[in-house]
Amino acid sequence: MQLHHLKAFLVLAQELNFRRAAERLALTQPGLSDQIRQLERELRVALFRRDRSGTRLSPAGRRLLPMASDAVGSVEDLISAAHAMRPSGLQRSSPVLRVGMVVDGIGDGTWPLLQAFHQLRPEVRLDIRSLSFIEGSVAIDRGTVNVVLKMGPSNDTELQQVIPIRDDQMSAIVPANSPLTREETVELEVVARRMTFQTPIELGDRYSRHWTLRKMRDAAPSRSLSVLRDGPSDSDLYSLVNRFMQIGGVALWPAGLPVPSGVRCVELPLDRPFHSPREIVINRRSDHALAFAACWPDFDPSSYRPE
């Protein structure tokens, strides 16, 4: 199995668009298609489905995506560790900054920020990984990445610092066959009663208060709450949202962010403003992570608090 085939799988899974994925990989579209076909032949499963609505992961692709991400990360960690063992005169490997993205990172500011860092530190190779909600909240403390671009409040820890970027307006997504689709707006209290996401304790109190709307949930009849737990298997956003819709749940969603193709749901505005923060979370011990944050135009260096 070729490492570059797995990388092609990961990039196409992020983009769900052959043209954009090929551009990121510096390949032609036929070249990318050939790599995906070779990987599918070796694995003996179809990783993607293509139809008039676009490209999406197959059920097998959704299950294998987290394992492929771990495999690529492990190989790159092995290479980095081996290079670090060489005598100083023989070390030729470039430094690496591992960046984790939850959903679409910090929205439309994600790629300009990555490009700005590349221009500032061209010698540093960027390793970009897709993270689930839970992974995005613990990845820095676990040493998986040194930067996380995410939505939803995080807590400062001994190792990580949170840099707020902006607040995004949220909307609601509901199943396509829900009676709620006949309404012009969805009441925030309705979302609170029918949310299918229970925030795991690992994410911290601040995240839990924000996403579960605890005061309203506590006032709702317990029989109206369908509870799921997000986990590593939900690193593919399609799988997570699709589960919400299949059991008739309602979820909060960034207004204007396209819903994953293939999910039968409708996006509706909320009856009143509800915002979620976008954040850059960095490892305090990483000089490259600090330089990355400094590429954000509104970053205040005086706010940086080293360990």
Description:
There is one protein chain. The chain is of the alpha/beta class. It has a domain at 169-274: Periplasmic binding protein-like II (D-Maltodextrin-Binding Protein, domain 2, 3-Layer(aba) Sandwich). The chain is built from eleven helices and eleven strands. It has helices at 3-15, 18-25, 29-43, 59-84, 110-120, 133-142, 188-194, 205-212, 214-219, 237-246, 287-294, and strands spanning 48-51, 54-57, 96-102, 125-131, 147-151, 160-175, 197-198, 228-229, 251-254, 265-269, 275-283. Strands 3, 4, 5, 6, 9, 10 and 11 form a seven-stranded mixed beta sheet that branches. The longest helix is centred in the N-terminal third of the chain and has 26 residues, at 59-84. The termini are far apart. Mean pLDDT is 76; it is low at 198-202 and 212-236.
List unreliable stretches of 5+ residues: 198-202, 212-236
Order of helices and strands: HHHEEHEHEHEEHEHHEHEEEH
Instruction: Give the CATH level 1 class of the domain at 169-274.
Output: Alpha Beta
Largest sheet: 7 strands, mixed
* Total strand segments: 11
Shape-level CATH architecture of the domain at 169-274: 3-Layer(aba) Sandwich
| CATH third-level topology of the domain at 169-274 | D-Maltodextrin-Binding Protein, domain 2
Q: Indicate the percent of residues in helices.
A: 25-40%
Oligomer: single chain
Could you say which overall geometry the principal axes of the C-alpha atoms support? globular
What is the tally of helical segments? 11
Structural class: alpha/beta
Mean pLDDT: 76
CATH superfamily of the domain at 169-274: Periplasmic binding protein-like II
First-residue to last-residue Cα separation: 41 Å
| β-sheet strand percentage | 15-25%
Rg value: 20 Å
